Amino acid sequence: MRGTFGTDGDQIARLKLQTQLARDQFINSLRASGITSSAEARPTQRKKISDLHQAYVSMMVLQCLDPLKRGVTAENVLRTVGMGTAMWLLSSNFRAQVGDQAGKMATAVGARLDLRARREAKIAAKGEKSREKEARHFNRTGQGREDMRGLSGWRHRRRLERVERMERGGRDLFTEHSAALTHVGIAQSAYDEMRKPGADRELIRRNYESALSALYGYVDDDGLDRKAVARNMRVIVGQLVEQNPEQAAVFSELGHGQFVKTEPQRFVLPGTTQWVTAWTGDYVDAYRGDVITDGTFALRDPMEADEHRSAVARTMYGELVSAKNPDEFSEVMEQYVIGSVTRKYPEAVELTEDAAERARLNRSRAMFASMRGDGLSEQEQKLAYVGGFVESLRVLGRTHPQTVAQWRRNLTPEREQRIRDLIARYSDFGEQLARDHGHAGERDRNGPGETSPPGPEEADIVDAVIVDDAPGGGRQNSSPTPAAGSSGAMEVYSRTRAPEGIDVRDAGSTERKKSVSLRRASTSASPEAGSSPEFEG
Predict the structure, then answer these.
(1) Cα three-residue angle 417-419-421, rounded to 5 degrees
(2) Which residue ranges have biased composition labelled Basic and acidic residues (predicted)?
(3) Whole-angstrom Cα distance, residue 144 to residue 48?
């Protein structure tokens, strides 16, 4: 079918673009709303959330209405925006604007509900084994609920009944997707407010938690699944970070690259025979290798320079210990050295073709965005980034000498020269490593246990708490020992003797993957992550 401006496919593509623009506008309106800036009572916050959400609903109804008027089928519009959003067109609040299109959408919604009812009845008839298989599919893919935005059939029907009974002027219901958008917008508002001069961070934190409490009051009132809201939140944040990696700075688990997205999965869309490949909203904890399948991201509080460097060291340490072979170990080192360029030229990441390299450079970019957002000067950013890099190597040399020795034995002269050249080429590293070398030599001359006061530009040594390989999840708290007389990152390894029986396995390996809640993982992996309550869904 061809509409005024092209085929159905063209109109659907345009609808997808318009819904993304509406999403961004809604999040930005929440971010600029001041909902976390003053001590507003929860009823006031509820009204502000409801008003902003109603404006978003109006935008979405208009976006859906346009392709319907141009001849696109109601079924295609429903498939694009999801069941919950499609039901907004049936609201009495938009009867005058939607007109006859409401009947077409009601028919499409009814047909979809009937299809789901028949499918669920078929599953039930097959018995418990079939239901368990279906549940495993949902848990693995996040699909089976109207493209991660819907509810089970009976809950959809209850929702439809509420929409049909609603009087004009009533509040339109949240969907799991719109609730997740609201959560993201509230988090971004609190992130901005905390970083304004003279901000009362404790008050803003309380307002943030109060606003989330008001939002999740609506979630419960509207019969939504909190776990589905959480999954939507993780998907939305992943999309925003993909568009602009600096968005990661808002959240504790992403601001320094602790969590990375899992690979897309291939599966059959429920109710169809169509195979698709899509990302399901899960992440991998780079510190531990756990797969994160539940929970929401935590708002990142402003951090001091030493806290940033500690977080940088944790991320780099986690990647180094997870390297599968010496070549990958060298690649990780090289790419984080190159990553220092993202401080001045963040857009350089887009020129990188290799996916793994681009991911690491984006983590570096997010690290600098987090530091810049917290008001660190350029010099402080350099010291935190390079200091974290050097410290991750030092601690690794002490905790995983076999890995280091194997890498050293396999390091060709050409590869070693390449790393030296990269360190020399990127001035951040050349300056900081030279400074670090000078202080290390001075400490050694003072003798064991004696240190001279650090210079005003020297970055503090990152605490060895970044290492977490003790039985039962305990942390090793011994302080890292600087390499005596080192002249840079290469010398951290040059004096490490290769012991017999090399074993490069470690606690951070992704071979130990298991599914865990985001909340539980974030609180155990980092002292600053998850320091305040979050909704778990």
Answers:
(1) 65
(2) 435-447, 497-514
(3) 33
| Structure-token pair, residue 297 | 């991201």
Which DSSP string corresponds to 186-213?
Answer: HHHHHHHHHTSTT--HHHHHHHHHHHHH
Name the residue range of residue 341's domain. 303-435
Query: For residue 339, which of 319, 359, 320, 323 has the smallest C-alpha distance?
Result: 359
3-state helix, strand, coil in the chain (%, to 5): 65, 5, 30
DSSP string, 346-365: GGGGGG---HHHHHHHHHHH
Burial class (CB in 10 A: 0-12, 13-18, 19+), 526: buried
Q: Alpha-carbon distance 252 to 265, whole Å?
A: 26
Query: 326-338 and 305-321 are packed helices; what angle lies between their axes, rounded to 10 degrees?
Result: 150
* pLDDT (tens digit per residue) in 145-155: 344 333 456 67
Taking only the tens place, the pLDDT of each residue in 192-233 is 999 999 999 999 999 999 999 999 999 999 999 999 999 999
Q: What is the 3-state secondary structure (H, E, C) of 286-337?
A: CCCCCEEEECCCCECCCCCHHHHHHHHHHHHHHHHHCCCCHHHHHHHHHHHH
Q: Is residue 322 included in any domain, yes or no?
A: yes
For residue 508, the Cα-to-chain-centroid distance in whole angstroms is 19
Q: Within a domain: residue 145?
A: no
Tokens 């402003």 appear where? 302
Closest by CA position to 440, among listed 387, 401, 402, 380: 387
Q: How far apart are the first and last CA of the chain?
A: 42
Euclidean distance between CA atoms 311 and 272, whole angstroms: 45
In a domain, 487, yes or no: no
Is 531 part of a structural domain of the chain? no
β-strands 6-7, 2-3: how paired? antiparallel
E strands in 449-532: 515-517
Closest CA to 175 of 153, 157, 154, 151: 151
* 318-319-320 Cα angle (round to 5): 95
Structural domain count of the chain: 1
pLDDT in tens, 379-429: 999 999 999 999 999 999 999 999 999 999 999 999 989 988 888 887 566
